[in-house]
Amino acid sequence: MNIVKVIEVIGASDKSWNDAIQTALDEAAKTVDNIVGIDVLGMSGKVENNKITEYKANMKIAFVIKR
Predict the structure, then answer these.
(1) Total domain count, the chain
(2) Is the pLDDT of residue 67 over 90?
């Protein structure tokens, strides 16, 4: 039986929400093994002069704990 742990992270990008999500996943994968899923909880952005200048994604990352 697998035990799965979930952590919450926020990714940021100046390109897109998809890039913010991938950036968060890539960074988490540097220190977390066995990632099996993500759940995007919400997205937000910073606006300057009527343009989105920063994209943020709040997400949960699930990974299997090895014994």
Answers:
(1) 1
(2) no
